[in-house]
Structure formats: C-alpha cells, structure tokens
Amino acid sequence: MDGEAALAAAVALPLAARAVRGAVLETRALGQPAVPQPASPAADAGWTHSTRTGSIGGSDLEIKDLTQRSVRVTLGAASRAAGSAETEPDEEVDVLVVGGAAAGLAASACCQREGLTCVVIEKNEASGDIWRSRYHRLHLHDIIEECHLPLLQMPATYPTYPSREQFARYLANYRSVLGLRVEYRSLVAGMAPSQAAGGGWAVDVARLDGASRKRFVARNVIFANGVYNDALLPPLQGKERFCGKIVHSSRYTNATDLGWANGKRVLVVGWGNSGSEIALDLVEHGARPTLLARSPQVVVPRDHLQLAQRLLHSHLNPLLALPFGWLALLPVLLLTDPVLKLAARIKYGGSLARAGLPQHWKGPLLRLLTEGVPPMMDVGTVQACID
Fold it and tell me: Residue 198: how many CB atoms within 10 A of its CB?
C-alpha cells in the first residue's frame, strides 16, 4: 500500500469494569484511571456501583495481579501531574460519581433528587464532550424514547435518532437545568477506604493541569465512566514502514478533515456500527474504502430495527410494572429475531454474501443477550458495498 493510502482501525473495545467477589477492581473510560477497591469493613459502610460490570473468576494470584496492574494505572499520570499541585481542603459528600457523561449525570440527578450531596468527576472540559469528539455522522443507535435521562427529556424537535451534537447539547443542558455539580478536567488519582468514623471512601482528585489536588470523603461512590472509551489498536506488523495515517475510530471525524476524500484508498478494519458508518462516510466523500470483515455480523436495516425498538419500548415498561409481566414478553422476544432475520433476507437477498460480508447465524436479540454484541444497524453501508 502506498503513502497515499490510509488505515482506519475500527476495532472492538473491551468491557471496562470487572467485578470480583463484590469488589470493583478495574474501571476505565474517558481517560479515568483504573481504581482498585478491596473488600473491607469500611467498604461495607457505603456502596460502590458500576454502570456496566462483568465477572471474572480466578485464583487469588490472578486477582492480585489485576489489582497491582490497576494500582499502577491509578497512581500513574494523574499522580505525577499532581505531584507539586496545591492541596485544597478535604470535602465530605454523600455520593461521588466518577464519569460525567449520560450515566454519571443521570445518577447524580437521581441522588440529588433524594436529597444527597453529590459531586461528579469528569475528565473533559464540558458535559457532552465525549460525544462531540466522535465521528461527525454519528447518531444514536437507539430510538429517542429509550435515551431520555430521568427528570428531563430531550426536546420534542429532536429526530428519532438524535445526532451526536444534539445529544451533546442535551447533556450540557441537562447539567445546567438540574444544577448538577461537575468537577471538569479532573481525574481520580487514588482511592482507599476512609478511616473516618462514618466509613466510606477517601478519593484523591487531581486537576489535569496539575494546579490543584483535592480529597473527597464520600460515603458512596458510583463508577459511571462507560465501556466504549479505551481505544484498542492491535499490533500491526510493518506498521513502522507504513507511510499513510493510522487512526482509531474514536479519533475519526470525517474524510475531508483527515485528507481522505476524493479518491484516497482507505482500509477500514472491522464492520461493527462504527466501522460500517465510517466506511459509508468515506464513500460519500469520494474516497475508495475497503471494508475488512473478519467476523460474521448480524445486519439489520435501520428502519426494521426501529420498528422492533418501538414495539419493545411500547410493551416492555408497562408489562414489567405488572407481577410476572415479563412472562407476557416471552412471545415478543421469541418472535423478534425470526422476524428481523426474515425481513433482512427479503431486503438483501444474497447481496451480503456477494459483497463478501459474512452473516452471523444468531438473530440480533439473541446475540446481544448472549454475547453483548449489538447488531450492525445498516444506514446504507450494505448498498455501498454492493455498488
């Protein structure tokens, strides 16, 4: 590949939070460092919560190794930046939230509604910045009805799938209207069980500019720093000899900004939602992308997926409010996958196979529930591959 070619790596991102024996050991996203939280009597006095947790088994040795790795991350850049920082007075709060995007702001709003004092720690300069940093054609992949945060809905003028910029504005407005306290440009530099009489956690917070450092004594800590923020680039043999650009999907904006428009050859690695939409953006800007599809994918046209999402949304909440109401959902859940797969087969026929796009045998809902992998919501990529 010559120097004019470029490589956009849209690769899978790892699950951010792992829970072992009731202690959250590693939570990463938005640049927040991993934080070890050993189980202890002091920890039982309060609670910690992660927005997304998985579980890993293993021996004490494996847990010890994971904890040591987390400690090194925790006491790395943030601590060095705060080495000569001015120390502000300690502050006691009921709840400290790590991460100030949608989940963190929503958690803070709910805590505040219950009369709890709450502070949100956020690396970026403003609420919604994590969304503003994503590729420009990005829209939410869930219908708007599923994406409202508690206490304040998105404007009625927003479309079914709001854009990244619309959602970013919503988050900024959400913080402002509800009067949430957010400490921007801040990182958690360390965390340990508090020695105070009330227990809880002593959390050291450092400013990104290194100007100051502060300790919060929080009875409760909520981790809300997401799962899709650690860029994972696989080792590429010969990378040092490649003359073009190598960009992770989290750093992609649009083809014109990167100088990839008008005939440039680009290889997009991965055909999940990000990779597929980036490939389509390249086509629309006149580039000549090649989509590398290694693993089978579940492809669902967006209009079909929208109907399924609306059906589940309109029936899910009312039924779950009833005793054993979830039983009535079973027929809907069992029918969703066959109907979506049949609709996709009718729409695409053998086009996916002819385009070299491998199809997964599972339906979208089954794969999401069993593997945690959402379907590829087609907004035009398949037709671009066929053409």
Answer: 11
DSSP state of 291: E
Output b/e per residue, 53-83; b: 16+ Cβ within 10 A. Answer: beeeeeeeeebeebbeebeebbeeebbebbe
Q: pLDDT by residue (tens digit) across 29-38?
A: 333 333 333 3
What is the mean predicted confidence (pLDDT) over 59-71?
26
Burial 201-238 (b: 16+ CB within 10 A, else e): bbbbbbbbeeeebbbbbbbbbbbbbbbbbeeeeeeeee
Q: Which pair of structure tokens corresponds to residue 337?
A: 């996958």
Please check whether residue 353 is in contact with residue 359, taking contact to mean a CB–CB distance below 8 angstroms.
Answer: yes
What is the Cα–Cα distance from 83 to 211, expressed in whole angstroms? 10
Paired tokens of 196: 């105070």
Token pair of 2 as six digits: 């010559």
**Alpha carbon distance 50, 97 (integer Å):** 10
Q: Who contacts 61 (Cβ-Cβ below 8 Å, separation ≥6)?
A: none
Give me the torsion for CA of 297, 303, 305, 310, rounded to 10°: 170
Q: How far apart are CA 268 and CA 291, in angstroms?
A: 5
Alpha-carbon span 301 to 347, nearest angstrom: 8
2, 94 Cβ separation under 8 angstroms:
no
Distance CA 290, CA 286 (A): 13
Token pair in block for residue 136? 């420009």
Given a cut of 80, is residue 316 above it in pLDDT? no
Residue burial 300-314, b: 16+ Cβ < 10 Å; e: rest: bbbebbbebbeebee
**Nearest in space to 249 (alpha carbons), one of 236, 263, 267:** 267
Per residue in 125-148, pLDDT (tens digit) is 999 999 999 999 999 999 999 999
For residues 188 and 218, the answer to whether their CB atoms sit within 8 Å is no
* Helix or strand (DSSP H, E) at 380: none
